[in-house]
């Protein structure tokens, strides 16, 4: 069967795609400019004709994928890494976990690993300090929930819709003095879609809203002290958090202060659902996220010039 596929030539691909041989060659070797329209036609022709050419695959020969997360204290990241590791293993790749501890990462570190053939691709959930020159080299990178550049595909949950669903649930229980509590300052500057969705609803119903944020790199004890200070400034009948861990910290603090506001979280990992089944939260589908992240990255590894969408958005479910 392979011999049959190998009989398909660059000329056949060019004829099918209605482009020149030179354009096909540039696409296969990643050497030179190819328009998005031409790249789409060429890849379609390759798929239709069953063209097999090992040399056109990406220059990176490593079978390792680096996964850059801020931490794994949040069980969401631990669950997502487990799903990524399992799925990519089926595709013949190993995962390497890199933790940046909420520090902005300089891309030089990852670029060196690419150039040394240590990794074939990068999945990041943190922002990268990456130059235009590095972006133009089409390194195989995909991002989860962080929009780094239109050239780096972003896979995200529908955070805006999730925020809307949470706000509607809170309002349906008659709450109108609300604390929006972000688990990291980066969630407020700029405001992330989760909070935007909540505010879009709350502002239409003349509720009283206060926004506060924790320092994500602080210890648990320091975060609890900060929450207690927020709670002593005002009395809230609902606390809407941007993640489940922050929601559970808020619950501990309100219990200590003998308060009983409605508390909502975000992420909905299986661990949190099993340990705290009464927590109102939004479930992100980690399995689906991992598969889309992996599939998009592997497409970029194999066909660096193939056009990809800048953003892929996955649905969420409110759990209550």
UniProtKB/TrEMBL annotation:
Pfam families: LacI (PF00356), Peripla_BP_4 (PF13407). Residues 8-62 form the HTH lacI-type domain. InterPro entries: HTH_LacI (IPR000843), Lambda_DNA-bd_dom_sf (IPR010982), Peripla_BP_I (IPR028082), SBP_2_dom (IPR025997). The keyword Transcription regulation applies. The keyword Phosphoprotein does not apply. PROSITE patterns: HTH_LACI_1, HTH_LACI_2. Keywords: DNA-binding, Repressor, Transcription, Transcription regulation. It comes from the Bacteria. PANTHER family: LACI-RELATED TRANSCRIPTIONAL REPRESSOR (PTHR30146), RIBOSE OPERON REPRESSOR (PTHR30146:SF95). This is Sucrose operon repressor scrr. It comes from Lactobacillus gigeriorum DSM 23908 = CRBIP 24.85. The lineage of its organism: Bacteria, Bacillati, Bacillota, Bacilli, Lactobacillales.
